[in-house]
Amino acid sequence: MIRALIIDDEVHARRELTALLNETGVFEIVGQCANAVEGVKAINRERPAVVFLDIQMPVIDGFEMLSMIDRQLMPQVVFVTAYDDYAIRAFEEKTLDYLLKPVSAERLAKTVEKVRTQLRSNSVPDYPTPELSRIPCLKAGNIKLIATGLVEYALAEPAGVYVIAEGEAFFTDLTLKALEQRTPLVRCHRKALVNLAAIDQICPQEGGGAELRTRSGKVIPVSRRLLKEFKQRLGL
To answer: Is residue 54 pLDDT above 70, yes or no?
Structure first.
């Protein structure tokens, strides 16, 4: 069985596609998500082999969502859309396939063959994705989109990844790796990324590491292993 995830903001669309996928006898549906933030969280947790992704969703669309996924966790992607112009763009983005709504069993059968062929090849998807201009975070049950230029640093805690911006800490479902790959934030420690523009001081420490002090007074560690490369990034 192929582990599949469905991401669509329309309840009836998720139900219809789930029924069609179940009828094929090929897929194990590991989840249904109503938006991109739920989708990223489910991909990190469930590691599906293929995602059926609606393109036009509120706040964060399907194309932008692809930029939020860690490359090492990227599943095969089949876009689902009601618009032909989006379908054409789906091919330009080099996703595996697309389905036009309402999805027919006949057209889905062709997609199933494409999915099977691609998975047999064991190739890792490498979709061209733009750099993220904003990071989806949670605040009081809502999705807050934080511009990457406002971020001081990002830190991995036992409870998850937090983005620090404008004096507040915001939880995000994006991994540190995804943030490193798709934003200007730079790795300074295995548990931390920093915005170079936010650095005020570098303070060497015993043992070969260092601490960064940001303009707002926050302290961020720099590991000994990464210090030389980090200084080079700063032109030091």
So the answer is: yes
pLDDT on residue 93: 65
Distance CA 226, CA 229 (A): 6
Gyration radius (Cα) of the chain, Å: 20
Helix (H, G, I), strand (E, B) or coil at 87: helix
Q: What is the CATH number of domain 134-233?
A: 2.40.50.1020
- The per-residue pLDDT for range 122-141, each reduced to its tens digit, is 888 888 888 999 999 988 88
Q: Does domain 2-120 have CATH number 3.30.750.24?
A: no
Closest CA to 90 of 58, 125, 53: 53
Residue 85: CB atoms within 10 Å: 8
DSSP annotation of 103: P
Band (92; pLDDT cuts 50, 70, 90): low
**Partners of residue 97 on adjacent β-strands:** 78
Where in the chain are the domains?
A: 2-120, 134-233
**What pLDDT is stored for residue 127 in this prediction?**
84
| DSSP count for the chain of H helices, then E strands | 7, 15
- DSSP one-letter code for 26: -
d(CA 205, CA 192): 17
Q: Which strand ranges, in their side-by-side order, compose the sheet holding 210-214?
A: 199-204, 210-214, 219-222
SS3 54: strand
